Every structure is written in structure tokens, then in C-alpha cells.
User: Fold Hydrogenase maturation factor HypB from Aeromonas simiae.
Amino acid sequence: MCTVCGCGEARVADAEYHDHEPARVVIHHHHHYHHQGDVHHHYHGAPVEHGHSHAHGHHHHEHEHEHEHEHEHEHEHEHGHEHGHDHEHGHPQGLELHYGRGAAGVSVPGMSQRSLIAVERDVLDKNNRLAEHNREHFAAAGQLVLNLVSSPGSGKTTLLCETLRRLAGHRPCAVIEGDQQTSSDAERIRATGVSAVQINTGKGCHLDAQMIHDACHRLELAQGGIIFIENVGNLVCPAGFDLGERAKVAVLSVTEGEEKPLKYPDMFAAASLMIINKTDLLPYVQFDVARCIENARRVNPAIQVLQLSASSGEGMDAWLAWLAKM
Assistant:
């Protein structure tokens, strides 16, 4: 979940617009913090000497500094045992640092879990309201909108280009491309004859509903067409941001490993379809297809799965058939 990741502003490439600005939260991080996260840091100053007399039962604080040191040691000792330790011959085994066990599911230095939840709700509430507006707009135009998500290098753009070539003359399409920098992917899409808008997110790690809203106003959308949104390569943050799409499609290449659905469960839980891509490389990599599907269905029992190779064309007909049913 991207609640306070510090995503910067996004821009539509080669365009100027000021009507809408993507919702973002600026978090100021301070070096001095006291009680957040799994490790507590205590900063103590030098002991203060009191000039007045401590008569009538009052005690001198001669050991204040020593007491502070003991207090710090006690806290470090206490929190050092929050995580399980398995010592064998003095060496820790299986030591884990888990920063996602709080109520917010994330840890940010200097912010309490309650503060993180408040920020998350504020960001997502604004995004979700605009996502609903997008969805109403798409429905009125009879648009099928799909949000393609994956790690970098999964083959999303190659899959899109091949899909667009096969749909040419059958169904109008448009593409919204999301990347941190460059317009290279949008140029590849345009080479197929399909309109594409490039969104450069800068330091941002995902697209949001505002960005899609702005991009759609720069596309000529034909009634009953398909809008493919190619999100920023990232299996974490895009999972939590509704763009107004009909469905999320998670693309996973066989070069990545079959454990990805378990490592990034939010994304695969949010996806309606998982595409196992680059199957032409299966003879050359160690990838257990059955185990990958099993892992995906552990986090999302309803997820549909397709296996294909955008390069060889194997499995593309099944993908086009899935699109036709949506």
C-alpha cells in the first residue's frame, strides 16, 4: 500500500495543464523521533543540576544520568525480544524484521500507526471518489478499461503491441502509458497506429485516478473501445489505487519466479486475471507453472490464469477471447 511513499508530481508528456493536480501528501521526516516502528530510540541530554535545596524528605538526583542510561538499556532490551530469536552456538538463526505487522500495514519513521491510517484514508478517499467519476465516464462511453500491472521487465509493452496489432480493424483501442521517465513505451504503442498518452510520474511509483482523468481528456475514445492502462512497473503501490478500471491484469513473466504472488499478495488479490508471460522461455528457466498458479490462488481463489508468449504468439488467442468476454 502506497500511503506515504512520497510520490512526486506527475505530468503528461509534452503537454501543459493546470486544471487538476494529482493528489499527493508531503511528509516531513524529522531525525528526532521517539516511539514509532519496531525499534525505539531515546535521546537524553546531560543531567541538570538543581541549585535549590532538597529539604524535608526530597532526595538529590545525583544519579539521574545513570538512571537515564538504565532506562534506555531497558527499552532496547525489551524491544530486542519482540522478534523471535533462535540461537545455535551463539549465532542467531531465522531473524526477521517485519515492519508491516501494525494496523496500517506499513512503517514510516516518525509516524504512528494511527497517523498512517489517517493519511491513507485521506489519500485513498480522494482517489476513490475520482475513480468512481472515471468509471461513470467509461461506462457512458461503453469503454472497457483494463489496468495492466507488473514488475519492470515482465513484457507488458510487448504484450500490448501484439494485442493491438491483432485487434486492429476489429475493436478501437487507446493506451495510457505510465513510466517514471521517457516516452519510449508510448512511441512503441504509437508505431502500431494506436493513440497513446504518456504519463511520466517522476519520483512517483504508480498512476492514480487523477492522472487517468487528465490523460483521458487527451484521447479520442471511440464508443465500445478498449483503453489499456500500462501502470508503472511496481507490484506494490498500484495495488491500492483504483483508477476506475474494469479489472486489474497482473502480468508475471517466467523469468521472475513462481513465489511472486506470495511475496506481493495485495497485487494478486486485487487482480482479476494473471497472465504468465514469456512461456517460450520455459525450457531455459527454472519456473514451476503449477506452483505459481497455486500460489496465486492461495491469495485470490477467484483469479483467472492465462499462459502465453507475446513473442511467439502462443496463447494469444485465449487472451483475445478473454477480452471479448469482458
